[in-house]
């Protein structure tokens, strides 16, 4: 009977230690090793801290549906379009894409779609909600603020490699910006 109590106590302690260490992760497992690998390092360079600051400045007025204007939305659209050109050049591809979302996954802008406008953003009609996209989810959930993903894209019909970074502070962000390209 005493041995049974000891076994239970040890098992409970192991669960608590395992659970608390999972919460202590700054990033998803192996994220740092992957971001410096050849598949993601050039993509990571496309979202430097200065880029995140620029997207934050552009997203701040747009994220408030009540007061956002078409001109403010156009600043975000122009920034995303410029990032597509820069990413295409740096990655030597023609398929770069930028997606900007709210923290809940609502797509604010998707350079892969022709539906980008403030009215469509307010109506949530640019693209389906991206809150289940791994890179975007990781960028929001983990304190490090970024996520990686390689997947078959339903939007572009090919293998898409993506990095997403949170715009703003952990647990109080404006959303996420994701840069991707199709292999």
Strand order of the largest sheet: 2-1-5-4-3
The first-level CATH class is given as Alpha Beta
**Sheet bearing the most strands, described?**
5 strands, antiparallel
Subunit arrangement of the protein: single chain
CATH topology: Beta-Lactamase
Total strands: 5
Query: How does the helix and strand content classify structurally?
Result: alpha+beta
Strand content: 15-25%
Features:
single chain, 183 residues, alpha+beta, Beta-Lactamase, 5 strands, globular
Descriptive account of the structure:
- This protein has 183 residues and is α+β, with helices and mostly antiparallel strands.
- The chain has one domain (26-182): Beta-Lactamase (2-Layer Sandwich), CATH 3.30.450.20.
- Helices cover 44% and strands 21% of the residues.
- It has seven helices and five strands, in the order H-H-H-H-H-E-E-H-H-E-E-E.
- The protein has a five-stranded antiparallel sheet.
- A hairpin with a 2-residue loop joins strand 4 (159-169) and strand 5 (172-182).
- Helix 4 (49-62) packs antiparallel against helix 5.
- The protein is globular, with a radius of gyration of 19 Å.
- The termini are far apart.
- Residues 3-24 have low confidence and may be disordered.
Short description:
This protein has 183 residues and is of the alpha+beta class. The protein has 7 helices and 5 strands; from the N terminus they run αααααββααβββ. The protein has helices at 2-23, 31-35, 41-45, 49-62, 70-91, 118-122, 134-141, and strands at residues 97-101, 107-110, 146-152, 159-169, 172-182.
